[in-house]
Structures are given as C-alpha cells and as structure tokens.
C-alpha cells in the first residue's frame, strides 16, 4: 500500500551513510562460513521440508519454530540451511550468539574442556572454570561492592533462584513484576510473565505472591508522563496493594525483551531502585536478553547508572552454550545456607569454558561499542522508512536491540498481521527476523554483534523494502 521504489532506495542510502568509513570486520578471528546472503531454493527448501515432516511426527507441537529452516552451519552474521541457503541473521538465536555462532575463542575453549572432562557436578567436586566465570561476573556487572554469583542452566532457572535468594535475604514473600514482562516458562516464572497465550494458557494454577505493577511504556502512555512519575504510579500501587514491608524483590527487565523492546522513560529504573533501597527490598535486574554488550553497554542498567542488588544473566553469556547466573551483593547472595542453591548441571564446565571465551571476545572486539554502531545504523534506516510509512508506529530500543512497533495507519491500534507479513517477506528473501510484543505487532532485531557491515547494510535494505511493501 503506497510504497514507492525510490523510498526504499533512499533507505539504502541512509544505511550506507551511517556506515561511511567504519568497515567493521573481526580482528580476532575470521568466521569459517562465507559471510554472504545466498538463496538457492525456496525458503524452506526441499530438505528442510522433509526434516519438518519428520519433526512433526517426533517433536511435541508445543515447541514452535519461527522459521522451519533446518540449519547445517552458522558463523558470524549468517545461518546456512541444509539446502544451501545462507540467511542473514537478525535474531542471534534470541540474543544468544552475540559473539557470533561458533566464535573461535568459544570453540577453542569448548574443545579443550570437552577433551579434559565434561562434568563432575560442582556440588560434588568443583573446578576452576566455574570460579573464573563468577570472578568475571563480579568484575563486569555494575557496582564496586563485594559480589557473589551462582550458576544455573537457563534464564528461567536463574530468575527463580534470584527470587529464592531475595526471599531468604529479606524474610519476605512478595515478588513485584511489571506489565508486558517476560521472565520464563517454569511455574514461578510463568506467574511472573505477563502475556497469557501462548506462555500461560492452560498451565495454571500459578505460583502465588507475584504482583504486577504498571510499566513505563512511553509510546502507549495515555498522557505525557515522566519516568519518575511512572515509577511513582507503580510505587503507589505496590504500597497500597502489596505493602512495602512485604516486598522481597522487584524484578524488572531494563528493556523488555519478549514484551517488545519497551524501554521505560528515563528516571523510571533509578526511582524503582531507590524505592527498593528505602524499603529494604531487593532490586533485581533481569538482564537475560539485554546483557553482555547487547544494548551498547555491558549491561543495560548502566545507561542510567543504576546498580542492581542482583543481576540475572543467561542468553548472551556463553556464545550459545546453556549457562545462566545470578550475581549480586555478597550479603544478599550469602543469606542462603550451603546446599540451598545448585543443580546437577548448573555451571557445567563446558558451558563455563564457552563463557570465558565469549567474554574474552566481547572485550577484545569491544562489542559494546560495536553494538552502538549497529544501533545507529538500524535506527537511521528504520526512522527513514518510518517517515513515509505510518504503519511503523514506533522505532525504539538501544544498541543492537532495536524494534519497530507496527500499527494501523492514523492511530496506534496494534497491527500484528502486518508484522507477520513483513517477517515472512524478509524470511523469503533470506533475512531472519523475529517478532515480539504483547500484541504480536513488534518486529525485533538482534543481530550478532560481530556481523560485518555489508551484511548489516544488506539486511537493513531488505527490511526497509519489506516494510514499504507491507
Ligand atoms: C529468555 C528470557 C528469559 C528466560 O530464559 P530461558 O533461558 O529461556 O529460560 C527470562 N527473562 C528474559 C528477559 C528473557 O529474555
């Protein structure tokens, strides 16, 4: 509707301008897979279609896939499927492979560790890798205070443990979360997650003592309201409906992930952190999607100099191996007695080795800085597209965590169908993008931070074009 080819061209020009003279390429290692977009069959191709047939007969249908293209190899900024199609990756397996798939320092460390030993269970006999990861987390997370960490397998498991720790440390029960939040799929984290279908529908009853407060959602606020005012609105609700003295912890994503990359107005997070401090509640930052350089800082809370009591990490921590962590103030973390935290696989030695490789690469390649460059280029391209296409209601996010919220022209009514159509168009043309949002109307972009400029530029041009055609 109403797209003109010349507008798409101008979006391309903007992208090129944002990259002028940058010419990013990895210093530490070259990805072992050609960094090119290549479409040689329909998407999905015949081999993927055949695998999908087997999958339907063997894999539970509750486990979905964004795009039923089966992957054979992946590195840098591309995923290559079993039919030989090479797709530009704007998803990083949901913000996991920020250092690129099969990044060289990750592969090197994993190979070495697998050859030495694969598991002892840290609770039976410990090993250095676990300790080294906790030392790194203490150094990298915000705040100069003494810290401790505990390692887990998944983000949801880490969130659950953050709640356990906060309850043990405060002797209180209530957990405060926010509208549009996503914290996982286990019983407690389902209760903490906002969106019903598909995450909660049919899975209740849910864990108790979880209370939902209103978020700061600048695009959808009914009236002009500052971050601080939005925080006071949440605080008023917590104080009247929960009681400050009952709150063990306030858990919040600094920029919401599955909720649609909602970035609260400035002042919202600092005021909530301050309120927690005043009331003796634990302020927990769920940095599972935002952490590890994604937003242009090591952690998203740094943007407003917020120092959380506990930081929960997972996703980008280990270059694709399953690892998660809770890191925080020593006196809070150590409130749990020996044996109270743990799990058979938590802090698996191979995953720890991978994490140390990923962190080395993030530092060596200065990926936080790179994320800012990616963000600037993405914003420029999307804002240019937005000027001539009113379905792009809001372009938002920070660093290499950018989203666009799609609406019906002339208002703010969510338009999930158009989001779906744009995503499908991108997929057909070899650009992997993800959707998100409570209303399913957000397209989100999470490219690997090592993505070379030419692929980013090409991906953004495809995206601009798909938006114009939608
Ligand atoms: C993905 C995610 C989780 C859950 O992590 P899993 O590893 O999938 O259990 C929790 N919180 C946020 C913000 C996430 O993005």
Automatic annotation (TrEMBL):
Cofactor or coenzyme needed: pyridoxal 5'-phosphate
Pfam families on file: Aminotran_3 (PF00202)
Keyword Nucleotidyltransferase among UniProt keywords: no
Reactions that this protein is recorded to catalyse: 4-aminobutanoate + 2-oxoglutarate = succinate semialdehyde + L-glutamate; (S)-3-amino-2-methylpropanoate + 2-oxoglutarate = 2-methyl-3-oxopropanoate + L-glutamate
Biological processes annotated in GO: gamma-aminobutyric acid metabolic process
EC number: 2.6.1.19, 2.6.1.22
InterPro entries: 4NH2But_aminotransferase_bac, Aminotrans_3, Aminotrans_3_PPA_site, Class-III_PLP-dep_AT, PyrdxlP-dep_Trfase, PyrdxlP-dep_Trfase_major, PyrdxlP-dep_Trfase_small
Keyword set, alphabetical order: Aminotransferase, Pyridoxal phosphate, Transferase
Keyword Acetylation tagged: no
Pathway field: Amino-acid degradation; 4-aminobutanoate degradation
Catalytic class of the enzyme: transferase
Domain of life: Bacteria
Single GO MF descriptor: identical protein binding
Gene3D superfamilies: Aspartate Aminotransferase, domain 1 (3.90.1150.10), Type I PLP-dependent aspartate aminotransferase-like (Major domain) (3.40.640.10)
PANTHER family given in the database record: AMINOTRANSFERASE CLASS III
Family: Belongs to the class-III pyridoxal-phosphate-dependent aminotransferase family.
Protein name, per record: (S)-3-amino-2-methylpropionate transaminase
Species assigned in the record: Segniliparus rotundus (strain ATCC BAA-972 / CDC 1076 / CIP 108378 / DSM 44985 / JCM 13578)
Phylogenetic lineage: Bacteria, Bacillati, Actinomycetota, Actinomycetes, Mycobacteriales
